[in-house]
Specification:
The chain is an alpha/beta fold and 445 residues long. It has helices at 3-11, 17-22, 28-37, 41-49, 90-102, 117-127, 136-143, 152-164, 194-206, 211-214, 216-226, 247-265, 283-293, 314-327, 347-367, 373-385, 389-395, 399-410, 424-427, 429-436; strands at 53-54, 69-70, 76-81, 107-110, 132-134, 169-172, 229-232, 270-274, 299-302, 332-334. Iron/sulfur cluster (SF4) binds next to helix 20.
Length: 445
């Protein structure tokens, strides 16, 4: 089928990317994402049809340049931005958006909880070329801080407002059920997901089941209306290594697997969120379990942080775990910044977080031989060996920082271009190695 056929499908009220893919239609969005990905459009359509990749693309997000998320594709990264009650400034959040996109973030999530949340969300969606996610329960709670007065309908209403504003994917903690709550009693860090903690409190206060689970069919109908994708949140993600892979997390995961299947049946794209804090040796089991339980739905993890003692450097603890998780099939890494556990990230924290996770994702892409990854590394190595600094900066994941660091050491000294201040001209190993290759050298002779 062609894009024109797709338009006819929309008229016939076949409105979602998943419906189109199943109907054999390669949408404009899938074709665009496939080209960026370096894979055949038909292959991406098959992955979307099977639910193993998603192309989050709310029909109201006009500035979107669609991207695909799936374990067979280049590993993606998400940057969390957004205000808090302590720091709320639209311009600051837009600057974080711009920097995240410049540095290669594939998605952003607006997690605003303070200030004019609606205005911040709309401004981010309006300017974002990458898919934008959100957690509507934050918005619901900010509007009505008394949980006893918040109804299930209020939560669904918040999702609808975000969908109308063009949000491409929403996190809903629909898999955390009343029966899971006793499982967190013996945990070291209890419930650390904000959304998870809100749902748990709501269930206790109202003595009712999780409203997103109880009214999941209504939620799916709402999603269909905007082609809103679901990011099924892990409300019971471990917040410490000691709680990793425990009965609470895996119990919730079983429910998320059920919800993935129900979403697919209604033509709604779904991915699954994951931890959190997981020591290195438990990451492969964590990822494999999700892939089996959720039938290959894209897995989107926060970190995972492989140790609990990296305060101030948690972006490194997270990137280490992210690289291993991506190697085992995670589709998207949510960044963590150096300010994690300590405060709301500023612009420099965003830079450090995005770059650290781009490195993690790229490392996995290289290991898995994804299109273009090894070629980029090879090009960088060749540029290094010929001391082509401009090409090195162009290929670097953070060109501005690479350029700045070299310039700082170059200024005021007489170093030639064919070395750097690390070893200096006399001891530059690459320079010495290149001289070995010159005609007349002992090696070349
Ligand atoms: S001086 Fe040392 S670090 Fe710098 S380019 Fe030469 S070998 Fe590499």
């Amino acid at each position: 089928m062609t894009i024109r056929d797709w338009a006819r499908c929309r008229e016939a009220r076949v409105t979602t990317q998943l419906d189109a893919a199943r109907g054999g239609v390669t949408t404009e969005e899938v074709a665009f994402a496939a080209e960026r990905e370096g894979v055949a459009a038909e292959r991406l359509r098959e992955l979307v049809a099977a639910g193993r990749a998603i192309v989050p693309a709310n029909v109201r997000h006009a500035s979107l340049e669609p991207a695909a998320i799936g374990s067979e594709l280049r590993c993606k990264i998400n940057a969390n931005i957004g205000s808090s009650s302590a720091a709320s400034d639209i311009a600051a959040e837009l600057a974080k958006l711009q920097l995240s996109v410049e540095l290669g973030a594939d998605a952003v999530m607006d997690l605003s909880t303070g200030g004019d949340i609606d205005a911040i969300r709309r401004a981010i969606v309006e300017r974002s070329p990458v898919p934008v996610g959100s957690v509507p329960v934050y918005n619901a709670l900010a509007s009505q801080p008394d949980l006893s007065r918040l109804s299930a309908g209020d939560f669904l209403g918040a999702v609808e407002r975000h969908a109308r504003d063009g949000i491409d994917f929403v996190t809903v903690h629909a898999g955390l059920l009343r029966r899971h709550l006793p499982l967190v009693r013996d945990r070291v860090t209890g419930i650390v997901s904000r959304g998870g903690a809100i749902m748990a409190q709501w269930m206790l206060v109202h003595e009712a089941e999780n409203p997103f689970y109880a009214r999941f069919d209504e939620l799916l109908e709402l999603c269909r209306g905007f082609d809103l994708s679901l990011s099924l949140g892990d409300g019971l993600r471990p917040g410490s290594g000691a709680d990793a892979n425990d009965a609470a997390q895996f119990g919730e995961l079983e429910v998320l697997g059920e919800l993935v299947r129900r979403a697919r049946e209604r033509g709604v794209q779904a991915m699954v969120e994951g931890p959190g804090h997981v020591p290195l040796h438990l990451i492969p089991e964590n990822v494999e379990r999700e892939r089996n339980v959720c039938d290959g739905a894209p897995f989107y993890v926060l970190g995972p942080l492989v140790t609990d003692v990296a305060a101030g450097y948690d972006h490194i603890a997270s990137a280490i775990g992210g690289a291993l998780a991506a190697l085992h099939g995670v589709a998207m890494l949510c960044y963590v910044t150096p300010r994690e556990h300590l405060g709301l990230p500023d612009l420099e924290d965003v830079r450090a977080g995005v770059v650290a996770h781009r490195i993690a994702a790229h490392a996995a892409d290289v290991a898995l031989d994804r299109p273009g990854a090894r070629a980029r590394d090879l090009a960088m190595s060749r540029a290094r060996y010929r001391f082509d600094w401009n090409e090195m900066f162009r290929l670097a994941l953070d060109p501005a920082t690479a350029r700045r660091l070299r310039a700082e050491r170059q200024s005021g000294c007489e170093l030639p271009d064919d070395c750097c201040s690390m070893c200096g001209p006399q001891f530059c190993a690459m320079k010495l190695s290149r001289e070995l290759e010159k005609p007349g050298s002992r090696r070349s002779g």
